[in-house]
Amino acid sequence: MALEGQDLDWGDAVGDLPRHFVSRGALVEELERRIAGAGARSDAGHGQAPGPIRGGRRQALRLLGTIDPAAYGASRNHLDGAVTGLSPYIRHGVLTLAEVRDAVFRRLGEKGLTGAEAQRQGGKLISELGWRDYWQRLWRRWGDGIWDDREPLKTGHAAAAYTSELPADIREGRTGLACMDAFAADLVGVGWLHNHARMWLAAYVVHWRRVRWQAGARWFLQHLLDGDPASNNLSWQWVASSFGSKPYLFNRANLERFGGSRFCRSCGRAASGCPFEASYETLQARLFPPAATDLARATPTQPWQGSAGGPGGDTPRQPVLWIHGEALGPANPALRKHPGAPALFVFDRELITGGTATTGGRSGDASPLSRKRLVFLYECLLELPVTIRWGDVAEQVVSFARRLGADGVITSQAVDPRFEGVRARIAAALPVQVLAPDPFVPLPDDPESRLDLRRFSRYWGTAEPAVWRLLPRGDGR
Q1: Which of 15, 38, 104, 298 lies 20 to 30 A from 66 at CA?
Q2: Quick check: is 89 in a domain?
Q3: What is the pLDDT of residues 178-193, one digit of tens each?
Q4: How many domains does the chain have?
C-alpha cells in the first residue's frame, strides 16, 4: 500500500526526507539508509521490522471512536479487556490528553449520563488519563532525576544486590517461562504491551532476577511505541519500590486470573518449577528478607503509559514552526495558531542511534530506538504538513529558518528536559516562541505551587474534581 504525505506549499530542498512511498517497506528502506550512514551502534537494528501498529491521526481517530468507558472500567486489567490502544498516539501528541478526555465526555453524553453516573461509568478511564498527566508533571519537576531512585528500596535488599545489565535470556525471550517469553516477544515484535503484562514482566526482571529497574526501563523505551521516559521509569520504580510504598508482586493465580491459561498450557515449567506458583506470603519470604515491607498483592493499579521552556516571547512575523515528537497532531498549538507556516520535524540522529542520555538515563548508556518506533513516527509525520529532515535538531531548524528567510521559530511546549537544550541552541541564532498546549486539567504546574505530587492519590484528590468540572452539563449549559 502506498504511503502519501501532504504536498508542502514551501517546496522541498536537498536533504529533505521523502514524503511519498510506494509501500511501507520502502519507508523502512529509507530509514535503513539513514541509520546505516549515521554510525549507529551494532544493536540498533534489534527489532527492526515494522510492527503491526500504524502511525497517524486517521488510525488514532478510528480507535478513539471505539472507546467504551464503562467496558474499559470493568475489564481493563484483563489481557483481552476493552483497552483503548491509544497510548502510542497520546505519547506523541497525535491525540492530546485533552482530546481524549473530551471524547470520553462526549461518549458519556451520548448515553445521556451526567453527574455521579457519568463519573461512575467514565471515572476509571479518566483517572488513567490522569496518571499520564501526573507522570508528566513529575518529569517536569525532576528532569533526568527520573533515572535515579526517588526513594530507598523497600525490598530489604541493598541497591548493590541488583545487577545493572539485563540478562540475554530475558532480552531474547528464552527464559523458558512461556508468559515472560511471550511478553518479551510482543515488546520486540509489536512494540506494545498490555499494562498488566508490563507490570508482570517488570516484577520478574526486578524481583525474581534481581536486575536494576533502569536496565529494564531502557529495554522498554527502546521498543515501546508509547515509550515515554516519565510514565515508563516511574512505573518501573513503582514496581521496584523506589517510588512506592512496597514492591509489586504477582503470582500464578493472578496471572491466570487476568491473562487466562494461554501461557501455562504451553509452558514446560507449569507442572513443576514455575517460580510464580506460590502464595503471596511464600513469595514474599522467598524473594525478600524478613525485614522487608509487607508484600504488594497484585491488584488493579495505575497505567503504564508515558516542559522545559515556558510560553512567551514575541511572535515572529515570518516564522517557521519546529515540530517535535511530543506534538505530532493538529492540536499542536504552533500548527493551530499558524496554519500554513513552513514547519519542520527533525529525526534526532543522536537520539535514534543511542548516543544521548534521553533514553538511557546517563550519557553513553543509551539504547538506540527500534525501527518500529521510527516507522510509527514517520507514518504520523506523513499526515502532517511538515518537512522531514535528519540530523542535529538545532542545526537543522536554524538552517531551515534561514533558507526560508524566517525571523523566528515557534514551537510547542515539551516535557523532555532535552528540549530546553535544543531550544537554547536555536535561540542563540533566532528568537524562539514556545506555546503551551491545552492542559488535561487546569492546575498550576510550577514547583512552587501547592499541588502535592508525592503520590498519585494526593494529586488526584485535587485534580479529579477539576477534571469533572469540565464535563458539559446535560441541560446544554
Answers
A1: 298
A2: yes
A3: 999 999 999 999 999 9
A4: 3
Which CATH number covers residue 330?
A: 3.40.50.620
At 244 the pLDDT is 92
Place of cell 488519563: 129
Task: Please indicate, yes or no, if residue 279 is contained in any of the structural domains.
Answer: yes
**Model confidence at 295: pLDDT above 70:** no
What span, in angstroms and rounded, lies between the C-alpha atoms of 137 and 156? Answer: 30
Indicate if the pLDDT at residue 388 is higher than 60.
yes
pTM: 0.92
Cα separation of the two ends of the chain: 46
- Domain residues for the domain of 182 are 147-287
Do both 214 and 182 map to the same domain? Answer: yes
| Same domain flag for 264 and 316 | no
For residue 475, is pLDDT > 90?
no
Asked if residue 242 lies in contact with residue 150, where contact means CB atoms within 8 angstroms, the answer is yes
Phi, psi of 339 (to 5 degrees): -65, 135
The DSSP 8-state label assigned to residue 206 in this structure reads I
Q: Are strands 408-412 and 432-435 parallel, antiparallel or unpaired?
A: parallel
Rounded Cα gap, residues 174 and 161, in angstroms? 24
Residue 223 · residue 183 · CB < 8 Å: no
What secondary structure, in 3-state letters, does 29-55 show? HHHHHHHHCCCCCCCCCCCCCCCCCCC
Q: Within its chain, how far is the Cα of 282 from the centroid?
A: 34
- For 433, residues 6+ apart whose C-beta sits below 8 A from its C-beta are 312, 313, 314, 315, 316, 319, 408, 409, 410, 411
Query: Does residue 454 form part of some domain?
Result: no
Q: How far apart are CA 321 and CA 344, in angstroms?
A: 6
Closest CA to 348 of 391, 394, 400, 395: 391
Same-domain pairing of 180 and 279: yes
Cβ atoms within 10 Å, residue 156: 15
- Dihedral angle of Cα 160, 161, 162, 168, to the nearest 10 degrees: 120
pLDDT at 368: 83
Phi, psi of 164 (to 5 degrees): -95, -5
Which cell numbers hold the place of 442? 487546569
